[in-house]
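User: What would this chain look like folded?
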Amino acid sequence: MNEFLWYIPNTVESGHRGDDTMVGWGSIEYSTELARAAEEHGWGGALLGTGWGRPDTFTVATALAARTTTFKPLIAIRPGYWQPAHFASAAATLDQLSRGRVLVNIVSGLDNLAAYGDTKSDPAQRYARTQEFLHLLRRLWTEEAVTFNGEHFQVADSTVTPRPYATDDRAHPTLYFGGASRAAEQVSAAEADVQLFWGEPLEGLAERIDRLKALSEQFGRRHKPLEFGLRITTLVRDTTEEAWHDAEQKVERMAVDAGELTWTGNRRAAVGQQRLFDLAQRGEVLDTCLYTTPGKYGGGGAATTWLVGSAEDVATALKNYGKLGITHFVLSDTPYKSEISRIGDQLLPLLRK
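Assistant: Here's the prediction, encoded as structure tokens.
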């Protein structure tokens, strides 16, 4: 079964990715409006953004779970910010209180490490730590008296109470993870439930899916087969022409605000972002409607490439990703509040047919 999630940026700063909402950011009232709108317009839940200097993601997720009935928060967390046993206990408690609505997105990317006392900046160490973190979460959620002595984490005789809310379909919260480097793919193949991709062309993702499946066999994966997800911006309008007109206008405003940028991040630590940035060199529009130009003017992460078109155009593009085996979709556009309803009402019914 496919999972369709929205995105809540979870920031106190207005103007996130061009959103024109000026008040309410960081308040429980505004975040609740977004979460309830997601429920009302067909979304299973939403990814909550994370980063030092933003509201604490887990705390916001707890508040939103208490104020909704079906909304599933996809809680982005960093292993350098949490100890695995501490997070296992917190997440299991929230999962019980919300009757199984917790989803978890493990983030290995760099943040303001010194601000919260993280000392691991080397990519190899960060991915090795993430793999231990995921391994320990699973054990703590499903075993008693867990003892583990790893390079990065240690626990002795540790039992998490309560357990996560188990059903026939899941024993614990789904573990999402992203990353395009070889080290990141090894983490996903061994320990993640869902590998999240950004918006690359179909051919590139098909190659990565094949590689991840081969890595899963190579590492003797002990869990159910790895699943795949897509995190991307979707600009949907009533007609194809209207969508492209609005997309080009948005990019023109980005160009005025930022000027043309050359991405200069650490290639070793952000292989996936560099892959997205390079797509603009291959063409302005790839596949049927994958727009690469936003990445030239400051669009980063999921905003680097956009699927642009009518609901039918974008549904066709997403179904083509589905044919590769992608079953989890985290979509968004700005303004976040109005696009929750537009995209939910126009696009999701086509995807669920």
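Confidence is low (pLDDT under 50) at residues 260-269. If you want, I can go into more detail on any region.
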